[in-house]
Each structure stands twice: as structure tokens, then as C-alpha cells.
Amino acid sequence: MLVGCMSNTLSLSKSIPTSCPPVLFAADHKIYLGINNADFTLDNITYKAEINNALFSEGCKIKDNAFTSILSLLFVTVPIQENVEMIHLPFYIAMVDVNNNIRDIQYYSATGKFNINIETNEKIETDLTNKILLTMPSINESFTIIVGFMLDEKRLKFIN
User: Fold this and answer.
1) In a 3-state reduction of DSSP, which class is residue 157?
2) Half-sphere exposure of 55 (CA within 13 A, CB side)
3) Digits of tens for pLDDT over the chain (160 positions)?
4) Separation of alpha carbons 143 and 23, rounded Å
5) Mean pLDDT over each residue of the chain, to the nearest integer
6) What is the per-residue pLDDT for 66?
7) Which residues contact 112 (CB under 8 A, 6 or more apart)?
8) 84 exposed, middle or buried (CB, 10 Å; 0-12, 13-18, 19+)?
9) What are the domain boundaries of the chain?
10) Interior/surface letters 88-118, b for 16+ CB within 10 angstroms, e for the rest
């Protein structure tokens, strides 16, 4: 029997730095419209949001045979109606292989409140930043990260 004061180095998982994959925004899912109710009309749009930027803020690594990193996303939201209070942005992050097959997809949401102009007391364009700890199955080939909003069929038809 061996006793020591060091931690068991065999049980510690090792992380290996790796190059970060490209991040793309889904062309048809880059814009999100907040809608007041089930009627999709121009009068019911409360806000508009767009995925603006994404970056791996702390590099990328493989740990326990999984790709891990922190992905920082920037959403730019514009109020359309003054009575809108909350921003709720459902989005997904997908891992796509070189053959455009989805290897993994994860679902998230960003929430916040609109900034207010102190001089006019009106809601103004607001940036929401969301940091996501990504843990995706590692694959032996290169892959791409795709980010997009989760849009139901009505929103998708209305936007496009």
C-alpha cells in the first residue's frame, strides 16, 4: 500500500490545446423577431435581433476526448415598440463536419432588458453578450461551428 500527499496524477484529465474551428452564422437564422402574439404582422413586432459576432475568448482544447471552449456571442437588439420589456433570444450552436453533416447541436437562450436613453427615457439599441461553455464530442476531422436563432415556421416565412 502506498500513501502520499500528492494527488493521484492518473485520475487527472489532461487538456490538449487545439486550433479553434471557424464560426459561421446560419444565413436563414441570423435574424430574430420578437412578436407580441401569435399574429405575425408588422404591427406585432416588438424587437429585432441579429447575431453580430462570435469568438473563442479563451482558446480551444480537447479534454476527455471532447472539444471544449468558451464561445462569446454578441447579439444586437433593436426595440420596435416602446412597450417591450424583456429580450428573449433562443439560439442553437451546431457542430458540422466537412460533409455538412450535423454532428452535434445544443440549444441555449439569451435574455436581458433594453437599455434606456437617460435623456429621452426611450428604449435604445442594446447589445447582449452571452458566454457559452461548449463541450462537444471530439471528432477526428475538421469541423465548423454554426450559430443561428431557433425560428418556428411562421417566423422563418415572415423574415424571409
Assistant:
1) helix
2) 6
3) 445 455 554 545 688 899 999 999 999 999 999 987 767 777 888 999 999 999 998 899 988 888 899 999 999 999 999 888 899 999 999 999 889 899 999 999 999 999 999 999 999 999 999 999 998 887 777 899 999 999 988 787 777 6
4) 10
5) 87
6) 87
7) 77, 86, 87, 126, 128
8) middle
9) 15-159
10) ebebbbbbbeeeeeeebeeeeebebebeeee
Return d(Cα 120, Cα 123) in angstroms, integer.
9
45 grid coordinates: 413586432
State which amino acid sits at residue 12. Answer: L
Residue 145: all three cell numbers together: 461551428
Closest CA to 131 of 50, 82, 91, 71: 71
User: Closest Cα to residue 28, out of 152, 148, 126?
Assistant: 148
Q: In the Cβ-directed half-sphere of 119, how many Cα atoms lie within 13 Å?
A: 0
Let me know: does 148 contact 85? Beta carbons within 8 Å.
no
At 122, which amino acid appears? E
Spatial CA neighbour of 96 closest among 106, 108, 86, 109: 106
